[in-house]
Amino acid sequence: MNTHGRNFRVTTFGESHGPAVGAVIDGCPPRLSLSEAEIQPMLDRRRPGKSPLESPRYELDRVELLSGVFEGQTTGTPIALMVRNEGMQSKDYEQLRTVYRPGHADRAYEEKYGIRDHRGGGRSSGRETLARVAAGAVAVKVLAGYGVHIAGEILSVHGVTGEEKIREEILRAKAAGDSVGGIIGITAIGCPKGLGDPIFGRLDAGIAAAMMGIGAVKGVEIGEGFNAATLCGSENNDQIDENSCYRSNHAGGILGGISTGEPITVRIAVKPTPSISKVQQTIDRAGKPVEIQIQGRHDPSIVPRAVVVAEAMLALVLVDALLEQQKYLVR
Amino acid sequence: MNTHGRNFRVTTFGESHGPAVGAVIDGCPPRLSLSEAEIQPMLDRRRPGKSPLESPRYELDRVELLSGVFEGQTTGTPIALMVRNEGMQSKDYEQLRTVYRPGHADRAYEEKYGIRDHRGGGRSSGRETLARVAAGAVAVKVLAGYGVHIAGEILSVHGVTGEEKIREEILRAKAAGDSVGGIIGITAIGCPKGLGDPIFGRLDAGIAAAMMGIGAVKGVEIGEGFNAATLCGSENNDQIDENSCYRSNHAGGILGGISTGEPITVRIAVKPTPSISKVQQTIDRAGKPVEIQIQGRHDPSIVPRAVVVAEAMLALVLVDALLEQQKYLVR
Amino acid sequence: MNTHGRNFRVTTFGESHGPAVGAVIDGCPPRLSLSEAEIQPMLDRRRPGKSPLESPRYELDRVELLSGVFEGQTTGTPIALMVRNEGMQSKDYEQLRTVYRPGHADRAYEEKYGIRDHRGGGRSSGRETLARVAAGAVAVKVLAGYGVHIAGEILSVHGVTGEEKIREEILRAKAAGDSVGGIIGITAIGCPKGLGDPIFGRLDAGIAAAMMGIGAVKGVEIGEGFNAATLCGSENNDQIDENSCYRSNHAGGILGGISTGEPITVRIAVKPTPSISKVQQTIDRAGKPVEIQIQGRHDPSIVPRAVVVAEAMLALVLVDALLEQQKYLVR
Amino acid sequence: MNTHGRNFRVTTFGESHGPAVGAVIDGCPPRLSLSEAEIQPMLDRRRPGKSPLESPRYELDRVELLSGVFEGQTTGTPIALMVRNEGMQSKDYEQLRTVYRPGHADRAYEEKYGIRDHRGGGRSSGRETLARVAAGAVAVKVLAGYGVHIAGEILSVHGVTGEEKIREEILRAKAAGDSVGGIIGITAIGCPKGLGDPIFGRLDAGIAAAMMGIGAVKGVEIGEGFNAATLCGSENNDQIDENSCYRSNHAGGILGGISTGEPITVRIAVKPTPSISKVQQTIDRAGKPVEIQIQGRHDPSIVPRAVVVAEAMLALVLVDALLEQQKYLVR
Prior knowledge:
CATH superfamily of chain A: Chorismate synthase AroC
Distance between the termini of chain A: 35 Å
Organism (chains A, B, C, D): Methanosphaerula palustris (strain ATCC BAA-1556 / DSM 19958 / E1-9c)
Oligomer: homotetramer
Number of domains of chain A: 1
Pfam families (chains A, B, C, D): Chorismate_synt
Enzyme class (chains A, B, C, D): lyase
Keywords (chains A, B, C, D): Amino-acid biosynthesis, Aromatic amino acid biosynthesis, FAD, Flavoprotein, FMN, Lyase, NADP
Structural class of chain A: alpha+beta
CATH class of chain A: Alpha Beta
Function (chains A, B, C, D): This reaction introduces a second double bond into the aromatic ring system.
C-alpha cells in the first residue's frame, strides 16, 4: 500500500538502487504556482553528506516534474515527481544478498514477498523517504496558502539535549562503530479549526499513522503524550478564558480528533540506525548462522535527517485534512 | 469518516442518547460460526457499573445481529450489529446544550459541524466505543482461527503500579471530584509473519492510528517505544540466533512495518477523564465565560474500561492485515 | 464490497429473510433537515403489491432512523437507516435450499462463498435495493438543496411503448407464467458544471457502475449511447451557440467525464425477471439435474419497480460528485 | 481521481504535451517475471501512424520501467512505468489556447479547474490511454498466469460490418473531413468463477465503469445487453444441463455481479472522434462566437486504436477482482 491520503493522494515508488524514486500527487488543487525550484530545498535538507554527522554518500537528488504543471501552475491533474538514482555502489551490497541485517526489514520483506532487492535496502531503504519529502514540499506550499506552517527540531539524542552535546554524542557513536536514537518535536501553527473526521479519520490518528510509518519511529505523542497518564483531569484539561482562548494546550491542538486552532504539537521517538559496524549475530537465507559487520556509508544517527521527513509527513496529513474539510465547511 | 479497514471494513454509527449504536462489518470471511452470545462477553467487559471504579450508569448493552449470519454461520455478506440505547437520562445534560466542557470535544464538534448533539457527548461519547468493541469481538473470533490472541492490561494509573494501589488511586481521585490517566499495554501473540504493507499500509502505522483514534489516547509506543531513543544500535537491534530465533524483541514484533512473528507489543497513554466535578472555567456558545462543575455518573478513570477497547482496535487492525496478506501469500 | 461512494459513503446490509435491511450514510453534510417521513415516500414507490403488475407480497417497509439526526437536523455523523423484515414466508423457499434457480445468483453465491442464505435470494434479493432507495432518498434531499432534480420513466417493455400497451404486455407475461424486460430512462436536471473527476472518477463511469450494479441491468447508455456509433462527428458534436449554449445534447450532459450543466440523460436495459413458473432445467447443489417451476409471489416485470432504484442510484452518484467537487471549486 | 482498482491499484499521470506520461502499479503480486519488452507490444498496438486509418503522428512510445522489478522479477513493490513524450508539435495547438473544441473536454476542464493545458487536449488527450495500456499489459501478464485471456475486435463502424467495408467507411469519413464511431466487442475467456463482490463491487459494475471511463465510450453492454429488454425470462435465463454446464450465455458470464466461469462478453459504443476539419460553431474563453476547423493529425475513427485500450481496461478490472477474491477463497 503505497498511497497516502484520501484527498491529497500521494503514491510513492522506487528502490534505493533502481532507476529512480518518485511520487505521484493526485488531488492537488489547481492554479497553485509550482516549480522544481520550490521543491528542491526540502530535498536538499534531507540529502546526506552535508556534515560529519551524516552518511558521506553523495546524492545529487535533483527533482524532475513530469506532469501536472502548465506554465508554472498546477492544473488539478496528477503531479509526477521523479529523482533519478545516481552514484549507487550496488556491489557494496553483494554480501547482503543472502544475509539478513539485524534491525532491518531484510528478513521481513523476504518472508513476506519471497523476493527482495537487497541492494541498499531496496524499497525499505531510507532513500524512499525522498519521495515523501518531495510530495511533502508541495503540501507545505499548499499549507502556506492557508497560513499553516510546520517546523521540526531535534529534542534529544541518546538522552542528551543541546546542539553541541548532541553533536558530540553522534560523533562518539560513529567512532565506536555504533549508532544512537533520539526524539524529534514537530509543531504546526496556524492550523484552522475543524480539521479531522471522527471516528476513524481523526486528525490525531492520521498523524500517529504518518509518524509511526516513518521507518525508524517507535513512538508518537501528541500534546502531553505519555505525561498525560500521570496527570489529574484538573491539571490536564485546557480551560477556556473570557476571551474564548484556551488557557493551556495539553491537548496539543486536537480534541475529539478535531483541530482546535491551537498549535499542533507532536513528538516522535527515533530508534538508533540499525546499520552498525560492530559484530552482530544473524542468519542467512538458508538459516545458517552468520556474524555480520556492516561496512559502508551509514548515518550514525538518523535523527538529524529524519526531521524534514517528519515535517513532510505532517504536511501531507494536514493538507489532506484541509481538503477533506472543504466538503463540510459551514457555509 | 466512520469506516475502519480496507478488507475487514467496520463502519460504526450512533450517538450516546440516540436510538442505537452499532456497526456494519463488511468483508468478514464466510462460514465462520458466529452468534450474539459470542459477541456479548467483550461488550460486558466494556460495560460500566461493574465496580466502584467505574461510572454507576446502568447499561444493559445487549447486542443484536441484524444480518450476515445464516443458521449460525457468516455468509460473507455484511454483518450488522446493533445495541439499543436504554436508560439514558438526557435531561441531565440539558445544562450542557450551550456550554463547552473543558477537555471534551464539545466546542470542536460545534465549530466543525455548526451543530452538535450535546446529550452525553453525542457521537464523541465513550459510548461509541461499544460499536468498536462489538466489531472487535468478531475480529477476535476470526483471529482465534489463525491462532492469534490479544490481551491487554493496565500498566499504571497516575504513575502508580499494582492492582491495589491503582484501585486506591482511582478512588482517591473520585473522592476529590477529579480524575486520573494511566498506561495500558496490549500484546498480540501468534501473529503470522508478513502482515503489513509498506509504505503506507505498515502494520505499526495502522496500530498507531487505531490506538491514537481511541478518544482519550495521547501517546502510542511499539516495542521499546520512547526508550529506543536512549539506546545504541548495538543494544536495540534484535540479533538472530542459530535457531533462526530473534534473541530479543525490542522491535515489538514489527520490522519495516511488517510483522516478524514475534509478539506485537503496544503501549498507550490514556489521559484523565475530562469530566470532573471540580470547578472549571469555560465559555458558552455565545462566548460568555461560565464556571462549570460537571455532575453526573462519570468514570474517575477511563483506563480500566479502555483496556477492552484497545484490544478490540488491535484485533481490527490485525484481521484487516491478515485478509490483505491473503492476496500476496507466497503460494 | 457493500459501500458506495467516496464522500457520501453508503454502506448497505441485510438479507431478504434476515431480521432487517438497512444502510449507513457516512459523509452527509450537517444541518440538513431530515426525518423518517421524508424518506418514506421513495420507499413506498419501490414497495410491491401496489398493482397487479407487481408481486402481491405485502411489505410495510417502515424506515427507522437510528442515528445522525438531532432535533430534526443532520449532525454530520453517520445516519443509520433500518427497515425490519416482516411478513416473510421463509418456508416457501425451503425447496430452493439446494436448487439453483436459472438466471439467479444462487449458484454464483454458493460457488463464491461456499454458503448462501437461500431464503428469497438472501443478499442477492431485490429486497436489498430497499436500502439503496432509503439512502437515495437522503441523497435526493441533498441534491434538491443544490437545485438538482432526477426523474425516471419506463421507455419500453418487451419492445412495446406507451403506458397501456406496456401494462398489457406485463399482464400477458404474467398470465403465461413468464416475465419481460424493458428499458428505463433517467434524467437529472439542474446539475452544476464541473462534477466528475478524470481519469478514474469520471462522472459517466460512476453512473455506469451504479446502473450496471442494479441487479437486473445489462446495459447502460449516456446521451446518444449506442446510437453514437452510427453517427459522424459532425452530427454528434454538440456545437456551442453565440449565447454560450450547447445547440444539442448528444453528449448527455457529460464531456471528458465532467458535467457540462446540460441535462444528464441515461438509459438502462433491464432483463426479464428470472423467476418464472415455466419449467426450466437446472441442477442442485450435488450436481443432479432438476426440473424447476418457481412458484411464489414474483414480479412479472421488474421494470416498474426498478425506476425508483435507478433514480436513487443516480442521486447517490451525483451527491458524491457534488461533495467531491467542493474541494476543487474555483474560489 | 487517477487511481483504478482496490488491489491492483493503477495511478496514471501525464499530459499529451508535458514531459512524460506513465503509471504506477501498486499491488502487483511478487515474483512475476516482467520486462519492458513484454509491455511494449500492447503499446505498439495502440500507437498511431501504422495505417492510413489512423493519425499520421509519429510516436515512438518506448516504455521505461522505473521501479518494482529486480533481476527480471516483480518484488511486490510499486512498478512505475514511464513513456517520454516526443515529437510533439505544441505550436499547432496555439490557436486552441482560448477556443473550446466541440465534442472535446476543453470547456469542461476549464470550467472545473479554472485552468487547462490546451496543448493536444492535455490530460484529456487520448494519449493518456497509453498509461492505461502499459499498466494493462502487466495485468494481461498476471491474468495469463491464471489462464485468463482477453481479446477485442471491431464489430461495426458507422453501422457497417466487415473489415473491408469498415476500412472504406473510415477512409470516406477522412476524405470528407469528418469522423465516424463504431462498436467494439471484448471477450475474456478462462475467467475463474466467483470474481466480483456484491453489492457495490460487482464485476459487471466494475466493467461498466472501466469501459464508460474510456474517453469516447457512450454505451456498455454485458451479455445480451439492450437486447435483454426485448426478451422473455424463459428466453433469457441460462438453464443448466445435466453436466452442470450452462446451456447458453445470455448473462455474459456474470450473475448477481459474480463471474460464472462462462466467457465474459462486453460491447461498447465508441462515438465519432470529435476532432473534424468541417466548420463548427463554438465560443472562446471570453464567450465570443468562433468558427473552428480543426486541422492536424487526427484519427478519422478512434475505433481501431480503442480496441487495445478496452482490452487493457478489462484486464485491469479482472486482475483487481482476482486479487480481491484471494481473500475469500473457499479453502
